[in-house]
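User: I'm preparing a small set of examples for a lab meeting where we compare how different chains pack in three dimensions. I only have the primary sequence for this one, and I'd like the structure in token form so I can line it up with the others. Please keep the answer compact; I'll paste it straight into my notes.
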Amino acid sequence: MKRTNRPFSKSLYEAYDQKAKDSLVEYLQAKGHKIVNEKEDFNVDVVSEKGDYLYFNEAEVKVAWDGDWPSHWAEIRIPSRKRRLVEKYKEQNGVLNFYIFNKDLSKAWRIKDTLMTDDTIKEAKGRNIWKGETFFHIPYQKAELISL
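Assistant: Understood. Below is the structure token output for the 148-residue chain.
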């Protein structure tokens, strides 16, 4: 399947990337994680440690999610380009989690990498989605909703 990705948006990155990382760091520290690395290196956003485990954490903001999760959204979509992170961290002794934040960063879905399999990658349609753009389609019931 040919995968199409929307071009990088510098304005969205500048508006949300650091805020999402800061929210994620605050949440992880409140859960007893020690932050190991949060330097921008185009891999995961935050590496943390808790107990004997390393956690690789990726933060994204879904700007269309404002307030509560819309009841008609059956799934959480994560761009398939994130597959490279799933592959990269598969062989490491750690846990990879994706955090999808709402627009005001008051809530997030935590999605385990084990849910992000090739069979969940599908084309998506929507007003802000490019024709042919693919995403991991994760039923929201399989994710964990956290409040920040």
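A couple of notes for your slides: The chain has a mean pLDDT of 90. The radius of gyration is 15 Å.

User: Perfect, thanks.
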